[in-house]
Amino acid sequence: MSKVQVMDHPLIQHKMSYIRDENTSTKEFRELVDEVGMLMAYEVTRDLTLEDVSVQTPVQETTAKRLSGKKLGIVPILRAGLGMQDGILKLIPSARVGHIGLYRDPETLEAVEYYAKFPGDIEERDIFVIDPMLATGASAVEAITAVKKHGATKIRFICLIAAPEGVEVLKEAHPDVDIYIAALDDKLNEKSYIVPGLGDAGDRLFGTR
Predict the structure, then answer these.
(1) With DSSP H G I counted as helix, E B as strand and the rest as coil, what are the percentages for the chain, rounded to 5?
(2) pLDDT tens, 112-154?
(3) Can you tell me which residues bind 5-phospho-alpha-D-ribose 1-diphosphate (predicted)?
């Protein structure tokens, strides 16, 4: 069954308070999402395997640790997932990046795919699917389904804010995918918005309405 981890690191929670604040400017919002994405990636990658390597320091030769050839990939869900992408790449610059575009049908609330492009060796990589929000779960489920269809088998989902309803939907659809969350909120309202939430992440990232 999926592991669900809510990250309570003080720096993440501090920055999340400003991300939620309606008075935070577009510039500040974008910078904060970038920073929280990087902090979350630091925690998510805690279990990466290491190998011993020989290193010559200015003083003498010693044994140090390096990642043991682990291949990673990032797949942001367009468009809001782009806000977390650069922060994660600062930490893992060698990661390959794919993209999946989804929009929510206003009547059915189902996610509809309109674009998908993934690394050619996706089946060899640990994939992080990223999106600031997990509301109904429809977009996350569809994105992960698409990633699996292209060959990925090791997948994690990372988001800033989630509703309990979305978490349950994602767990049921993809029980093999672990979920990492900065904040688990109260519920969805009648319009399927996360409460208390942060508003529309895409609009706040790009200054649109």
Answers:
(1) 35, 30, 35
(2) 889 999 999 999 999 999 999 999 999 999 999 999 999 999 9
(3) 79, 104, 131-139, 200
| Residue 34 is a catalytic residue | no
pLDDT tens, residue by residue, 9-40: 999 999 999 999 999 999 999 999 999 999 99
Domains defined along the chain, listed by start = 4-206 (3.40.50.2020)
**Residues 95 and 74 sit within 8 Å (Cβ to Cβ):** yes
Instruction: Tell me the pairing of strands 154-162 and 4-6.
Output: unpaired
Q: Pick the catalytic residue: 49, 57, 63, 108?
A: 108
Average pLDDT estimate for 192-200? 93
pTM above 0.85, yes or no: yes
